[in-house]
Amino acid sequence: MCVFLYLFRDKNVDSRPKLRRSQSFNTSSASGIKQLLLDWCRSKTIGYQHIDIHNFSSSWSDGMAFCALVHSFFPNEFDYNKLNPAHHKHNLDLAFTTAEEKADCIRLIEVDDMMAMGANPDPMCVFTYVQSLYNHLKRFE
């Protein structure tokens, strides 16, 4: 979530600058954006096995959601039905490599980092990468 901060002076307290959140982006709009992105991911992966996208953490840990999302745009690049949900590293590498080669979407997450995070990767890391995927893949819709 991006939050803009700005300086202001409160003349009633003292003359030191203070930080205050901008009202242009609040929590509800950020959660709305996240929900829209989750909905988009779900719509692109309908019918794919081993997919249950409900968050930006555990839903992506085995790489299957990344593979399904990328495969929905580039179905000739790999056989999704031959993927094994237990092969996390392979799935993540396949999805990230295909997205980079076909959609010019750079890796914002490394496979080893995802592996180190285990079953619950950092939601902000995953959200940031999925948002980048959206921005790169939508031109292929």
From TrEMBL:
It comes from Hemibagrus guttatus. PANTHER family: CALPONIN HOMOLOGY DOMAIN-CONTAINING PROTEIN DDB_G0272472-RELATED, SMOOTHELIN-LIKE PROTEIN 2. It comes from the Eukaryota. Belongs to the smoothelin family. Keywords: Coiled coil, Phosphoprotein. Signal peptide: none annotated. The keyword Phosphoprotein applies. This is Calponin-homology (CH) domain-containing protein. Residues 31-138 form the Calponin-homology (CH) domain. SMART domains: CH.
